[in-house]
Amino acid sequence: xxxxKIYDADAQVKEIVDNMPLITEMSEIVGKDIPKYxxxxxLGMGYTPEVVKRIAERWPxxxxxxxHIEKDMVLIPAGEFMMGGGRWEDxxxxxxxxxxxxxxMSKYQVTQLVWKEVMGNNPSYFGGDSDLPVERVSWNDCxxxxxxxxxxxxxxxxxxxxxxWEYASRACDTWDEGDEKELDxxxxxxxxxxxxxxxxxxxxxxxxxxxxxxxxxxxxxxxWYDENYYxxxxxxxxxxxSIGIGPxxxxxxxxxxxxxxxxxxxxxxxxxxxxxxxxxRLVRSYNGTEVI
Length: 292
Fold this sequence. Notes:
With 292 residues, this protein is α+β, with helices and mostly antiparallel strands. It has two domains: 9-59; 74-285, Alpha-Beta Complex (paralog of FGE (formylglycine-generating enzyme)), CATH 3.90.1580.10. 29% of the residues lie in helices and 13% in strands. The strands form three sheets. A four-stranded antiparallel beta sheet has the order 1-4-10-5. A four-stranded mixed beta sheet has the order 8-7-6-9, covered by helices on one side. A two-stranded antiparallel ribbon has the order 2-3.
């Protein structure tokens, strides 16, 4: 009796993903729609529906990728908060900020899987093409990623302003800064990371349902850093500088001490610089017509 063939779905998915460029080229030559053509071809070749579905979701440019990103966006309502504080001079003085427009923010840091689906590569040091956060991406790389994502979707995706980031992050500031017992529940930092990044969404979220706002990887903002900006920043919707010594990064990382993993801490990095502790989180502008 012939042995029954055992299908390894993970191995099949990896095989197809590794050959995506070649299959895409073949599909374009014969003038077929991608990934519809690929799905039909794979079913005809005997691949299981599970594998076909997973490939279709991962295909670069596939609308399923956009749906995957959009379903993780959380609407952050307009409001006001006290921005700044802590031990660092550039994070003071504490001042009132009003966020006058709601905006969407992703529950998660951008993962290696999402980055590869949009950009076709994975530059991360801690590799895996998985739900690990993407890292070793520069601010300039992030701008190109967002440009391509907006071309694939209805647009509106961007990096958060520094004020938007802190406003969203402060929903998790229900403990005193420096309380490592509480920080451990919400963040991967030097005290518990084991010297590496971790899959997004494994720690407790804040009250808006946002994961890893502190720790895992630093998150880039659209603003450029100015150590004296808080001395004269506008009260309503501050957008920060558009040029300076480097764009702002926030939140700390797997490599940071607890004192860096706070909502108030500010830092910066060169726009072309890359590091295995630097990633990003997406926001999307609210267009004013969607139902809140």
